[in-house]
Amino acid sequence: MSMSDIRKIKPTAWLPLLAMLFLMLHAAHAPAQTDADSPAIETAATAAPAQLPVPEQYSTARKTLRTFFETEKLADKAKCLNLENFTAEERSAHGREIALKLNQILDRIAIVEMETVPDSADEAWFMPQEPRVSIERAANGRFLFSARTMEQIDDLFQQYGGDQIVEGLEQHKYEDMPLSFYIRGILPKSMLRQTLILENWQWIGLLIIILLGFIASKIAQFLINGVTTRWASAGRIALHEKHKLMTLRALGLIVMGGVWWFGVRWLGLPVHIATFLQFLAQIIICVASVVAVYRMVDVLCSYLEERAGKTANKFDDLLVPMVRKSLKVLVVAIGAVFIADNLYEDVYSLLAGLGIGGLALAFAAKDTIANFFGSVMLLTDRPFNVGDWVIVDGAEGSVEELGFRSTRIRTFYNSQVTIPNSVLCNKIIDNMGARTYRRFKTYIQVTYDTPPEKIQEFTDGIKQLVLNNPHMRHDYFHIYLNQFGAHSLDILLYIFFHVPDWGAELRERHNLMLEIIKLAGRIGVEFAFPTQTLHLINEANAGIPGDKN
For 474-490, what is each residue's pLDDT tens digit? Predict the structure, then answer.
């Protein structure tokens, strides 16, 4: 990227204000004023159209020059300059500085005799010797110091700015004079010498500003860390250390970029260099702001996950991951617009172009859009919660995560099944985890030689075990001698557990079966197992049919 390209970049300042949540990104669409009370600088690029009447003070070269010398404010002097080759932000930030540089150049070349300046509306005025500082008619009809002269102002100032003022002239002090000129006025000449484009004091100032940026960053991180730690302790909130550290680093970069952005304005650097450095500082601020808010989403959602884990309702466990992803997408989208506004002059045209391309992208990504709306429908209908045991289209397991595009199910083989949400919405979902009661049906097989009285006592004892268990349904269960089996008398055990999940169900099954085994031992009931009885007939004793002996 060349210097000429950099000067065309729109350096809009999106500066963050740290307060409460430690981050607010301020979108400064209007050009930033150096002083709060400085009027807008009107140039050929911003003035009224050419068909409007030309103000008297700009109607001829002589009157424009007289206006430039006689006005007491630098902002008014800047109105005499044709800054059409500068961006609006450069005109606002550096217009007064350019006007003061031009004034000091003229004061160090010669005393200008107004009578020698052409007073014809059709002629331009030129300095009689080098440098060729000129006044020419601008596109709006006003006579202004030419755009060519303004382009060369930094080189001219480097050449003549250190010279003595022409004898007979005084050094003027302006109320709205930039800070850099006050600094130059108190520095020795050795500090004003140029070394590699910049003056010596400007190089030193850059190093100091860089150092101050690092120091301010560390101080901001320390203060914000202390505040968040006390806040988290007071609210008994566990902050994830990784998310907290990355957020603090991003906030520190914002402060660092802010110090660099403001510091560059105080050094009186050449316009194109100041614009480039401020552009870099603004990019750091914008990117760091997006990262900071992105990581703050993690901090916020970690807190919400912790709160959701303490509630009996599982819907919030399903909702928090969706909120996390939605907020992150929103932050990235807004952040992209912030950065684009710093890179492009006309961000709205860019967005319009992206909108047209977005239509084509939407057609290509119709499945993704369908899955997104499928996830919205799943959140609305809530057919399952995270952790529920579900059976969907041959897949059986517990719900692990509901995402934008798909739902992940962890099977009982510990494999992971991913089902697109658009497909999931059109399938039959058997939610085993939504059961109020969990049925348990089995047969208790006892031996055929068990007396009827013991069978009755045994079944009554099992019924009492069910009634004494708080995790079982008491209003509906069946425990009866049910059938004559091939090798046993079969007692039907048909009960329901009132438990939240499959693990609790297995635990209660285990406890009940142990109690039944203990009950059978006390009563003297024996459990049957598959057996066969073989009856043998002694044919020798029984005789052989047909034998006459």
Answer: 999 999 999 999 889 99
